[in-house]
Design goal:
Elements: E1 3-8, H1 16-29, E2 34-39, H2 51-67, E3 75-79, H3 85-96, H4 99-103, H5 106-113, H6 121-135, E4 141-143, H7 149-166, E5 174-176, H8 211-219, H9 237-250, H10 254-260, H11 266-294, H12 296-323
Parallel strand pairs: 1-2, 2-3, 4-5
Helix pairs in contact: 2-11, 3-6, 3-12, 6-7, 8-11, 9-11
The structure holds tryptophanyl-5'AMP.
Length: about 325
């Protein structure tokens, strides 16, 4: 069975973009692959966050993974910080990464271009830690949204560099990007990614938003004045984003939705998409509440950490030998 690995960082509440671009894919693949899904909590420290908030986000994220349908019997679900080999290999990957190479990462460049204050060194080196997260487990595939593909490319380069310098050690993984919804856009500014940290409250749908409130956000989404429902991300980004969301949540192909909307306007498309979001969130949140109340989270994480550590510890020992850290 081929192996797959991915993670999400618990920096804030999760968005519909995280669900469509990532979590939904994990759930789809869990029967087909040996899956490792983790919570990248060390990555959450790259921007200042209160301990209580990080704890809450972490619990919420694991409950959402489970509510969305990840089955802990099939998938190894774990916390990054429970497996110290991530930080250990992270340092080695940082030392293998070029200074200029990390400067070219577009996510980092975008942050720098905004001249935000408080940019940490961790934000700069986090792609190297992400490479370690991946390479410890030799996955064949890494499912991610579009914004993370560059980091998976860097991971491939680092794996090849290490293998060349120290002999064959890591599998070179491939990114897998969903066909529908690799990038969900801000509802108010549909040329920008829907993001937990950067979207305006009306532009982002939070997975824990009140479902009726979320439906209203869809109703007030920015569209255009062309008046024809068509999938044309360049000229009609708002409408195309709604079509993508509707298609992802209902599994109806975009073409088929567009065909149904011949001669029908945006108000109807917004109403139908709003309803799909409302139903999806209502169902997800009911399961999320059940899971938190049941107290299964701790047990899932404990089992997950054991499974993950078994693989990661073997790999880090091998790496320590190869680079000369262990005598
Ligand atoms: P993060 O936490 O920013 O995002 C988690 C996943 O959600 C996807 N995503 C989106 N997909 C579609 N539309 C959007 N608007 C949208 N916003 C986010 C992301 O592409 C990602 O797949 N560095 C990573 C976490 C990480 C990781 C890893 C991932 C750490 N180590 C190892 C894979 C493998 C991150 O910050 O993702």
């Amino acid at each position: 069975m081929k192996r797959m690995l991915s993670g999400i960082k618990p920096t804030g509440r999760l968005t519909l973009g995280n669900y469509i671009g990532a979590i939904r894919e994990f759930v789809k693949y869990q029967d087909e692959y040996e899956m490792y899904i983790f919570i990248a909590n060390q990555h959450a420290l790259t921007i200042p966050i209160k301990a209580s908030e990080l704890r809450k986000n972490t619990k919420d994220l694991i409950a959402i993974y489970l509510a969305a349908g990840l089955d802990p019997e099939k998938v190894t679900l774990f916390l990054q910080s429970d497996v110290p080999a991530h930080a250990q290999l992270g340092w080695i990957m940082t030392c293998l990464s070029g200074y200029g190479e990390l400067q070219r990462m577009t996510q980092f460049k975008d942050k720098m271009a905004k001249q935000e204050s408080g940019i940490t060194a961790g934000l700069y080196t986090y792609p190297s830690l992400m490479a370690a997260d991946i390479l410890l487990y030799d996955p064949d595939y890494v499912p991610v949204g579009q914004d993370q593909t560059q980091h998976v490319e860097l991971t491939r380069d680092l794996a090849e560099r290490f293998n060349k310098r120290y002999s064959d050690t890591f599998k070179v993984p491939e990114p897998v990007v969903t066909k529908v919804g690799a990038k969900i856009y801000d509802l108010q500014n549909p040329v920008k990614k829907m993001s937990k940290s950067e979207s305006s409250p009306k532009g982002v749908i939070d997975l824990l938003d009140d479902p009726a409130f979320a439906r209203n956000k869809i109703k007030s989404a920015v569209t255009d004045s062309l008046g024809k429902v068509a999938f044309d991300p360049e000229n009609q980004p708002g409408v195309s984003n709604l079509l993508t969301i509707l298609s992802a949540l209902t599994e109806e192909p975009i073409d088929s939705i567009v065909a149904r909307y011949e001669g029908i306007g945006y108000a109807e498309l917004k109403a139908e998409t709003g309803e799909a979001v409302f139903n999806f969130l209502t169902d997800l949140q009911a399961k999320y509440k059940e899971i938190l109340a049941s107290g299964v989270v701790d047990q899932v994480l404990e089992n997950g950490a054991k499974n993950a550590a078994r693989i990661a510890n073997k790999k880090i020992s091998k790496v320590y030998r190869k680079v000369g850290l262990s005598l």
